[in-house]
Structures are given as structure tokens and as C-alpha cells.
Design goal:
single chain; alpha/beta; 2 domains; five-stranded mixed β-sheet; two-stranded antiparallel ribbon; 8 helices; 31% helix; 14% strand; binds zinc ion
Amino acid sequence: MLDSLDIWPPGPGQPLVSQQPDAELISILKQIDTNRMRATVEKLVSFGTRHTLSNQTDPVRGIGAARDWIAAEMRTYAAASNGRMVVTVPSYVQQVSSRIPNATVISNIVATLTGSKEPNRVYVISGHYDSRVTDILNFEADSPGADDDASGVAISMELARVMATHQPAATIMFAAVAGEEQGLFGSNFMATTLKQNGVDVQGMLDNDIVGSPKADDGTIDQFDIRMFVSGLPASNTANQNLQLASIGGENDSPAHQLARFVAEVAQNAVTQMNGKHIFHPIFDGKRNVNEPPQKNFD
Ligand SMILES: [Zn+2]
């Protein structure tokens, strides 16, 4: 798996070695239905546009139709959770700003699966369901947004569906947010609400532009995930940052550590994903990425 160990310097510390998934995780991964995820993306595309400023009451076209469909789908998943998953559609009115010409209702869809052992420990998974064309204020043109970001929403939804029948120790919120293209409004609203309510969010994984493995230069790489992690916490004081810098701790922020953990658990034969370039997603030419993935479990 880590075939570049020879370049790892001697001394203290160990390179990350992927964890092998346990039986429950393998069963969860096997329940992920890629055909269903594709159907979710196509359904979201079928609303024509999901621009944040588009129609919110038309049952066929616009962001309102998409919002209602996502919420209805999530509720069918929650029905299988024995009451442990609850779906809400929190919303607020965003006042005029540079990309919001008129006061606009911004609605998120959130399926919250309460943890079985530590319900106050919370993780958030999100994608944005709004879309746009090049002209950021054009809310009428067709704007399919299949990989930006219906695919990220499909991840939130598919994980909600599968996890509804499992009992994770901590609480997980599966979210589809709006207003991203206009200025991260939906996710900002969600973060602010969580903070105001004193919720202990230990981590958040946002998925944007998923399932788009072809680079501008034509390179296709479907085995690497590119992760973007925040650096030093914004709440740090200047003194705290100085102390961290003096010991090289600027690379060990909580977000960096979470990303390392993701790399450690994600790269294995079951997921078929390759985590070794997760911080430096450079194609190394060692694997013929045009070959279809080998299915090595049933
Ligand atoms: Zn996006």
C-alpha cells in the first residue's frame, strides 16, 4: 500500500499505515449503492436549475423542488431508523448582499442520526445542493450542477440511507446546504446555529465536486481523494500560534489530524481508494488509472 516507504527517513515517528476495516464497516461499504447515487445526481439535475435565487414554490423546476425532494427522500431513510434519525429543514432569510439582490430564504436539509453511546459528540457531513452557471446571478438558465455539487449531496443522502439502520456511537448530521455559490450562506447558517446551541462538533467533512476524476489536462484518476484542510484554528491567539510555530505544531491542527485519520482509514482494498497522495494529489504514474477498479470483495 505504502510503496514509497524507502523514502521515509529513519528516526522516531511512523508513516501512516492504513487500518483494515472491521466487519461492520465492510458491511456498511457494501451497502453503498452507486446506481442509487447516480440516480440521485440525475434527479437533482432534472430540476433544471438549483440556483439559490430560483423558484422556491414551483414543484418541478428550481431550488424549492430540489429542497422538497431531498427532504422527502431523507425522511424515507429516517423511517428505517427506529426514531433515531430526524430530518429538519432549517431556514432563514438572507438579506441583500453582493450575490443576493433580494432578501432570499436559504434552506438546508439536515438528517440527524443520534449517537447510541455519546450523543453529544457530533460529526457533520455535507454537500451543497444549489447550482449556478458562469453568470453568478443568472437563476433562470439551466444549471445542472451534477458534480458541483449534486454528487456531494448524493454522498450525504446515501450515507444517511445506509447509516439509518446502524447505530454509530456518536451523533452524525447528514446535510445538504444551499447558498454555497452565493457566499457559503447555508453552511455558515448551520455552523452559527450549532455554535449558538453549544453543540460539540468534533469534525466536519464537506464533499464538493465529487466523482469528477478527469483533470483539465485529460488525466483520469479515480483512486485519489483531494482533501483541503484548514490550518491553525481561527480562535487561536497570536501567542498560541507562536508557541505552535516554535515546535512545528502548525501542521498538527485538529483539522490536519482529522485528515490524517481519514487517510488512514480510507486507503484499503475494500474502498479501493489510494490515500498516499491525499495531501499532495500528484499523479505518480504507477497505477494504470484507466483500468476499471478491481472488485476484490463480495
Ligand atoms: Zn461546489
